[in-house]
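The pair is quoted verbatim below.
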Amino acid sequence: MTRLARSLGATAALAALVALLGGAAPAAVTQAAKPASPPAPVAPAAAVTQAAKAAPPGPVAPAAAQGAPGARRAPPGSARFESSDVDSFAPPQLFIAWHAPYGTPGATDTISFGAGDSNRVDTLFMSFEIGRNTPQFLGMTARLYFHPANGDTLGTYWRYDSGSPNYRNLEIEFDPDGSFPCPQPWNRSGAGLVDFEFDAGGASLDLTYVITAMQNVIPADGRVRYCFARVMFRQRRWDLPGARQPVCLEWAVSRFSSGLDEATARSGPGRCISMNSPDGSVCVPYRRNPGPLPWAPPRPVIGRP
């Protein structure tokens, strides 16, 4: 498995978002999130008692503010959350396309890898609609699946993990550098985490991006289609086995966080795109409505070289 953490100085915020969205932060990130200095000494009980007696009683805070079960607290420095600020329009939607964001000129849902051009780069654009207004957008996660055709297995070309022949030929960009062709729900660079896992029966790519400073958080508009990331496939190793086999790439799920609540997306008309399948037939089994998958035997675990 390949792990790439960007903006390592913000690993504490990254670990917090991963935990918030239901994932498990890598050990290195979790350790970085722990305080480096020892806790301050606790005052003697007598001093605490005297201080409590000297302080005049103040108003009693509501139960939610006292940390009652089920209460959620806003991150420090965040804008006050009002339920009236959240307007729902539609369920969140996911879109992926080659060469340009889904629904824009130049976008396509299938490409074929050819031999002989080692300088070629094919760019996948990931975009989404959150479906509701939110006063602050803290970050999101995404999972992509690489599916071989029914009855087939992925060749060596699709191994992007560390030490594999195609390592470093898959690149991901999140940061708002002004070159994305659609707006992004962040206007300052944050921290990203990329995890790739290979199995001959299918590979997965997990992406996480989090805003690391509350002063950089901006509202999100539920009616705007935002860009999330660019995934660039560099064709330096088109000679590897599997480079021209049909593969379906599926954006299976994403989770969005506003700090006080989360949203999950599993649907969208453009969640699946194909490679080396001009008619897109390799994706037919995966253009399904969201729901439980049928039972299947576990895939064999492929050992690493």
The chain is about 10% helix and 25% strand. The first strand starts at residue 2 and ends at 5. Confidence is low (pLDDT under 50) at residues 1-14, 23-86, 289-296, 299-305.
